[in-house]
C-alpha cells in the first residue's frame, strides 16, 4: 500500500490535489490497487458460489 504524498507537504494548499503531480500519480496508483482488490474479491465470490452449487447438488 502506498502512502499519500500530502502528509507534511510544505506546498499544500486548498484545492492543490487538482494540480499536484505527486498526488495525481498517487491517485492513479491507488485506483489500480483498488481495482485489483475489487477483481480479487469478485473472483473469490464467483469461486465460492461455484463451490456452494457443487456442494448443494
Query: What percent strand?
Result: under 5%
Query: With helices defined by DSSP (H or I, 4 residues minimum), what is the helix count?
Result: 1
- Structural shape: rod-shaped
By DSSP, the count of extended strands is 0
- Quickly give the structural class: mainly alpha
Which stretches are low in confidence, meaning pLDDT under 50 for 5 or more residues running?
none
Helix content: 55-70%
Q: Can you give the mean pLDDT?
A: 93
Amino-to-carboxy terminus distance: 41 Å
Order of helices and strands: H
Radius of gyration, taken over Cα atoms and rounded to an integer in Å: 19 Å
Can you summarize the main beta sheet?
none
Describe this structure in words.
This protein is mostly helical. Helices cover about 65% and strands about 0% of the residues. The protein has one helix and no strands. It has one helix at about 20-55. The termini are far apart. The relative contact order is 0.11.
Question: How are the elements arranged and paired?
Answer:
Elements: H1 21-56
Write a concise keyword list for the protein shown above:
rod-shaped; mainly alpha
Concise synopsis of the structure shown:
By secondary structure, the chain is mainly alpha-helical. It contains 1 helix and no strands.
